[in-house]
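Help!! Second protein's tokens look totally different from the first
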Amino acid sequence: MTEVRFGVTLPLPGIPLREHRRIVTGLVDAGYSDVWTAEGGGADAFTPLAAAAAWDPRLRLASAIVPVHTRGPAVLAQTATTLADLTAGGLVLGIGSSVPAHVTDLNGIPFDEPFRRTRDTLRFLTRALRGEVVSGAFDTFTVRGFALPEPPAETPKVILGALRPGMLRLGFTEGDGAVTNLLSAEDLATVRATVGPQPAGKELVVKVFVSPTADADAARRGSRPFLAWILNQTPYHAFHAWLGNGDLLAASHERWRAGDQHGAAAALPDDVIDRLFIHGTPQQCRDQIAAFVQPGVTAVQLYVRLEPSFVRGTTQAGAGGGLTWRSEEFTERALDLLRALRPRSAQGAPSGQGAPSGQGARSAQGAR
């Protein structure tokens, strides 16, 4: 049996990064070994990791994911090398294609050939982070004479953000594994069946969205707009069609295509929201999180959305009408919550035992 790692996505939504120091330094004692970041319309992926490394270098640093279009391959290698030098816990560089809304709409960069660009970036990083001189034409870019002056003492793992067979297989055949997200524990079985038995040292990471509140209506209201947006992005639309959830999302897709974003959100069935953004008391959430600890899964990262009432309880009005933080009180409450969310036993069976029957045994056909 292999111990599954648990991590927290930083920064916690709605909480300033500067208020995370005491939380980060308490994570190891709360049962967490990793800190994860993402990169979309909020914080960048690397600054929170650098801060976390300074606050507690025992933690493993990990991104999930950094879009491959928005940074050049050399910049990614340089950044990974610098971060790896800051931590004793290791670095996992998660890269991926992201979505056109982040790449093109926010950055003005064409979302061209996402699969090949991801593959080429992975191949470049694999060589560059080992200290090789990389020079030559890839399908989507050309590099001339790149070499790291001082390669990392411990080579970072490079994993792919992967939703469907093509990217999943690429992550495990040429990279160090894959991270998947926005799926239910039942859907995870389909992903595992596609991956198959994993060689030693490969990572299968799952990102779980959590809203720890017993108020189901409030949890759904808080997560519905985000889920409507992301499930109607082309990669996630295709992902859930492949998983067999297309009929459940058809009404939302229809309204989204008509330009009715509010209608698209309203059309999402409660059952879909409940499975993709789990909620309940901390103990109920913990039981649901434990369902993602499946054979082959090496790490679970939690995206924890704090309820407004949680935040209001640890802030007070400041000068000029702003909010000031009662940092010690907030830290204590946040760490108590994270401690309660982490499953008590987090051991997954070896991946070679095969996929379970049922949904995971479906034929994994479909586009990448």
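Here's the second one for comparison:
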Amino acid sequence: MYITAVAGGAASSKLMTTELVGILMQREVDVDGLQHTFMALRACVEHTAKVVCSWIAHILIPLLLHAFEISTSWTFQALFDACHFVQIHPQPFQITGWAIFFGPIIILIPCLLLLELLILAVFNFSFVSHGFLLGSVEDRFDNIKEYFMETRESIFATIEHWTAMFNTWTTNYPPLLILRLLAGAMSLFILFGIWNGW
């Protein structure tokens, strides 16, 4: 169209003006049609939203209320049964709760006690020789303790490393910190329950 306008001169410019007016009028009709289409689509979406909201109000809300009525009755019964079971068998929950609260450091004392029992067993086993070993009883006991000192230090260092990792995890992730504090609170509650005789 541009080429014909340039080639034809003034006559083609009149033609071009009338064509432009026609094109603009056509576009105006297209825009009106597009606006009408969008208005119809908007009305359809609004009607659908109203229908869905009425469904939710009439069907879903009573259904949820009924579901919560059903769930609360068995939930409370399950809670009472769980509390009764904890009252009858508090030791596993006490041990588990303190283990979660204190972390790996809780196994340090049993490990060191087992090592001390091993030292005492080896010391008592040394009496089998009936005096064939040189030195006094105190010297033999000190020698055995020194022999197992490296084992004791390695156990302590390993558990200290595990505890540092456990503390880092629980401080970096708040859900783990909350779980740890809840375990401590549960264990403390069970401990008071044991002391008071439930």
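Reply: Different proteins will give different token patterns, so don't panic. The chain has a mean pLDDT of 81.
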